[in-house]
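User: Please fill in residues for this 105-position structure.
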C-alpha cells in the first residue's frame, strides 16, 4: 500500500506525474534506511549496548510507518523542492520520528 498507493496518489499532478513516482520510491528507500540507523541508535541507547545495530522485521515495519509520515510531508513539497532538499527533509524528519518514538515508548 505504501509503495503503490503513495506513488500513484501524486500521479494526478500534470507537470510532476512520472517524476512523482520516482521521487516517492526514492523517499521510501531513504526513509527506511535512515530509520534503521536512527532507530538502531536509540535502541542501543536504551539498552546501553553499542556493539551492533540489530535489524529485525519489526524494525523494517516501523521504517515503513516512518516512510508514511515522511511521504505525507513530501506531498506538500512536490514540485517546489529539489532532490537535495527532499533528502535533507527526509533525514531530519526520520531523526525526529525516531526520537519521538524513543521518548514515547
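Assistant: Residues filled in for all 105 positions:
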Amino acid at each position: 500500500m505504501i509503495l503503490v498507493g503513495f506513488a500513484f496518489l501524486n500521479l494526478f499532478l500534470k507537470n510532476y506525474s512520472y517524476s512523482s513516482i520516482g521521487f516517492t520510491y526514492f523517499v521510501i528507500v531513504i526513509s527506511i534506511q535512515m530509520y534503521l540507523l536512527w532507530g538502531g541508535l536509540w535502541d542501543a541507547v536504551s539498552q546501553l549496548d553499542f556493539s551492533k545495530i540489530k535489524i529485525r522485521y519489526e524494525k523494517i515495519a516501523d521504517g515503513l510507518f516512518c516512510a508514511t509520515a515522511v511521504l505525507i510531508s513530501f506531498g506538500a513539497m512536490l514540485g517546489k523542492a529539489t532532490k537535495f532538499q527532499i533528502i535533507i527533509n527526509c533525514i531530519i524528519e526520520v531523526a525526529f520520528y525516531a526520537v519521538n518514538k524513543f521518548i514515547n515508548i
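For context: DSSP finds four helices and no strands in the chain.
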